[in-house]
Amino acid sequence: MFEYAPAPESRDVVDLQPSYGLFIDGEFTDGSGAPFKTINPATEETLAEVATASEADVDRAVRAARRAFGTWSAMPGSERAKYLFRIARIIQERSRELAVLETLDNGKPIREARDVDLPLVAAHFFYHAGWADKLDHAGYGPDPRPLGVAGQVIPWNFPLLMLSWKIAPALACGNTVVLKPAETTPLTALLFAEICRQAELPPGVVNIVTGAGETGAAVVNHPDVDKVAFTGSTEVGRLIARGVAGSGKKVTLELGGKAANIIFDDAAIDQAVEGVVDGIFFNQGHVCCAGSRLLVQESIADELLEALKRRLSRLRIGDPLDKNTDIGAINSAEQLARVRELSAVGEAEGAERWSPACELPDRGFWFPPTIFTNVAQSHRIARDEVFGPVLAMLTFRTPAEAVEKANNTPYGLSAGVWTEKGSRILWMAERLRAGVVWANTFNKFDPASPFGGYKESGYGREGGRHGLEAYLDV
Amino acid sequence: MTDAEQPGTARADEAPSGRRSSAQGRAEKPGAGKRRIEDAGKAGPGGRSQESARLAARLAVRKTYKLYIGGAFPRSESGRSYAVASSEGEFLANASKASRKDARDAVVAARKAFGGWSGATAYNRGQILYRIAEMLESRRAQFAAELADTGAERPGEVVDAAVDRLVWYAGWSDKIASVAGAANPVAGPYLNLSSPEPTGVVAVVAPDEPLLGLVSVIAPVIVTGNTCVVVASERAPLPSITLAEVLATSDLPGGVVNVLTGSVKELAPWLAAHMDVNAVDLTGVADADLAAECERAAAENLKRVLRPSVPDWSADPGVRRMTAFLETKTVWHPTGV
């Protein structure tokens, strides 16, 4: 194995403040809840103290959004578009700063923040900017109206990217927003607030309230919120769906997944191995659409497992700011505990656990890339979303069996198929009950491509023409 | 073509004689009398007065209104029934009062039918929906009479509208994907296609609009490949079972539509809570508290919920009732050599 010299990205580009307030009505203000600390999960160092929005603060934010809604929704779409284009440009201009900050707060490798998250964030604003003055042609009838104030709660795995998935379509369609970032990753959202100021976005159009679950509940349950958008766990999604019942609020939920990545015996093995690695170890497996169940055709199972182990032994785990790092830190102590717990259950239930020999840093939250073999469909490791770098490998003999096993889950967010046979790809894609199917690739995203799940992976789509529906009164 | 003619399919003129008559001890309605005269006229020259006399003398064979599950017409396993009265308060029939077990059986039947129905070609589904329209048209007089009993004004026009609605939806089967799907221009070497797919088993609480409303909620659900369990109008459930007879003779595979009659208050929450149901259409839930209860129950497995509404059933339905029960599947194919 090659030795790599350290190649750290400089963090000087980020100007961290000791404390951050809420962003309401175009101003940074104090929160009335007890402030919390956000840490760098790779070092456990405190990055900043962040305000907690109480119910009263959320109410202030919603009222600001309501006030702004009148002028924002009445503004010609072409003008709203220009604000979104401005935001997209500023994101590009400040992308290095945003990427480094994302990596500091989230623990993801800088390579991913820089090459995946940030380009997609900018692309999302560009894409939706273009829709703002073309909604008449989006297939929802002439002059489709916005919903009003959108309450949005996003997760910690792709903090800024999830923000862009929520805010860009909402604003393009003429809504105003109150967004709550995850409590472990609030910093890029607050930097985004500053970007809104640089873009001279009218006050109140975007409001950012930070805090934990209680703040999120205050946002989604606020009676003057017309639209709820949530990305996160199925467990919380259920609570939200229950909470808004009877309220008439429009809801979209992008929840958990347990995607099958299916490899047929005619697949290009090396490509497939890359796809498996990308599918489950991208972003430390903190990906709702991660290919966490590997289904391999029995005849090539041994060969593939060997190649996979070889590849895993070459993954570099460590300092997320190092440009050579493949796998960064687990986002929080809490998440690390969950990954450990489910892995322990996997062993206890009889699956065989394997990780490459790798040195983990002393401080911070780390978990080595892990493969479970001898996995039964009934094992929790094959059923529960681990949301970490843990892969459960199962085998199949026939395409029908692969479909049966792939669909044997309450989730339905994504799936992968690897085969050189075109007709088989289409046959499989037709039968997989999942919102996104990647054929001979995995974990690809684009603002023009609708994303969202079947079954308990939630409802509604984000991206593409389909994503607009979530923010229009249609 | 699988929608071949079925032997024994009801003819328009057999309907009245198969129905109850004044022998059930109630006054004849003007509409019912007229229908009889028309049909007697068809029976042959000079038949009118003889036929009237014959009918007056004959005790009618009543129809037992049962449930429609998996293509069969079982009674409720609970043995329960409830009396259904006309809009004027006269006894019409004892309808089955479906139990929780019946609801479960219906879901099982709908799930079993889903693979075949969703896998059928759009063209085939369209043909079958058109066939349903044909069968409904052929029973126009029977439905008009049943609707008259429910208090419908201009029942004949309602039947016409229901037939036309089925024809309209039949044509959507092979067009909705063109309207709701997309080829997405992603920034990379990929062919990226989004296509609509049926969401699965849909529980439908039908509105209290016994034929046009019923057809208008069933057709958009099944035309795209979903299967459904329908809770009929509680007040006027009889036309829904007669519609099931139409469905049973239209080459619609058993289980694609299952019809339960009984208490909406009982059945709706059971179906909303059922873990093998993918979506609920609460259109017919008039009570806001009950609708909220159903929506809460539906959250358990994240069912798609179409909330209650009071649509104008004579208006252009648009595509919303179809898209509400469609998933969007997006498939990425790399391009390369």
Description:
- Chain A is α/β, with parallel strands linked by helices.
- Chain A has two domains: 19-255 and 454-471, 3-Layer(aba) Sandwich (Aldehyde Dehydrogenase, Chain A, domain 1); 260-439, 3-Layer(aba) Sandwich (Aldehyde Dehydrogenase, Chain A, domain 2), CATH 3.40.309.
- Chain A has helices at residues 55-74, 77-93, 95-106, 110-131, 159-172, 187-198, 213-221, 234-243, 269-281, 301-312, 333-348, 380-383, 399-406, 422-431, 464-468, and strands spanning 19-20, 22-24, 27-29, 33-40, 45-52, 149-153, 176-180, 206-208, 227-231, 250-254, 260-263, 293-297, 352-354, 370-373, 390-396, 414-418, 436-439, 458-459.
- In chain A, helix 4 runs parallel beside helix 5 (159-172).
- Chain B is of the alpha/beta class and 337 residues long.
- Chain B folds into two domains: 11-62, no CATH class; 64-334, Aldehyde Dehydrogenase, Chain A, domain 1.
- Chain B contains 13 helices and ten strands.
- Chain B has helices spanning 15-18, 30-43, 47-57, 100-119, 122-138, 140-150, 155-172, 176-180, 212-222, 238-248, 264-273, 288-298, 320-323, and strands spanning 81-85, 91-96, 182-183, 190-198, 201-205, 227-231, 257-260, 279-281, 304-306, 326-334.
- Chains A and B meet through helix 8, strand 17, strand 18 and helix 15 of A and strand 4, helix 12 and strand 10 of B.
